[in-house]
Known about the structure:
The chain has twelve helices and six strands. By secondary structure, the protein is an alpha+beta fold. Its main location: membrane. Belongs to the outer membrane factor (OMF) (TC 1.B.17) family.
Amino acid sequence: MSIIRKVVVPIAAILTIGSISIEQMSAQTPISLDSCYRLATKQNKEIAVAKHEIEAARLKEKEVSVNFFPQATLYGGAFKFGDDLQPIDYDRIFGGFSPLIPNMIKERTKLDMSSVSFAAVNVIQPLFMGGKIVAAKNMAHEAIAIKEGGLQMKTRDTYASIDEAYWQVVALSSKLRLSKSYLKLLNDALKDVTVLYEQGIATKADVLSVKVKQSDAEVTLTKVENGLELSRMLLSQRLGLDPSIKLSLVDEEDGRLNSDTDLLPQKMDDLDIQSVIERRPEIKSLTAAEKVFKYNRKMVAADMLPHVALIGGYSLTNPNVWGDKVSHNLGGTYHVGVAVSVPLTGIVSGAFKYNGASEGLAIRKLETEDARNKINLQINQTRLNLEEAYKQLNTAIVNKQNADENLRYARVGYKEGVIPVINLTAAQTAWIQAGDALIDAHISLRLAQGKYERAVGIMPIAE
């Protein structure tokens, strides 16, 4: 559940979803469920974090790919020493005759260390790393797939939470109209029974029984109004808006719910369950995780193999020590060669690490298979729930039609004086109960349809 964010001014400069802006929402312009989806996905912090994680994974893949190319390093430095360097040990070479050697000669063989500088560039090109670089590149690529699966799951969960909040508002809005209609029926019945009581036809008990029903209806109406207010606040919160913004929804319009049978298919086509399961983000992420562990095992194996690299570079020094004689100027030379690294004692520990990586891979495969079974069960369960919701809706429609007819006969019979007021109020109670059940059936069908579509991987809006 995301944190409520205050909408700052100017609002239109911050948030515009299609042609729906916050000003239009505040003006009670009805918004659709798809608009709520788009607004929620744009405002949701978890989805934003998931998108940044995907981008970070892509950058990581590019970073790992650099290891295929030569790695160059530039070195340099300058120093000043207090004494000169005498590379020739005259005492060791000439022994007791050392004092006979002129100081002029000794001075000429000294290296001037008052100003020493060096520079070097070194290049390393991997030739054979046991497949470690390739495995690391593939691991980074699969990490992107894992993050993308996480984004899809968070987006799907956001759709589910919006579904619940949206249709709760629609349900309570419909029940508010129903409660007002019921209260009007009771008010009319109270007027009629009061007139009959004054004429001596009805009893005081008849009047009181209607008043009790009226009081109960007023309490119910208040509860529905409060529930609707809170539901609107919840929907605004899940959309990342200020709760003070009162949203008006397209499906709140009277009669919109009755179009369910036109909007939703009466018979679901057979699905290729296996292909649906493989397209689910959970399976994509788990399959990518399997590959990550597989490549990790290859990296462990690569550490037990020899590593070969081509090394080359160029070095400069002052004093120049690379020529036939030492000179006090900048000079240098190149170097090129092949470096080989062969692990010896590390092979033993590497073998244990390899076996541990193999066990990790086996665990991931079992988790993936278990997820496939659970998703298969979920798809079948949501499909059965949707079929049940259709049947409940058809039953609720018939019951509502019967309740309407029963109320019509009761009102006519009461006016004709052939049935008592208690039968009229009973017919009214049956009418509102049937209406309430019909609204619940419509909402249950909408929610069941959304759950089924998400289970089979159908997103309400294109990503």
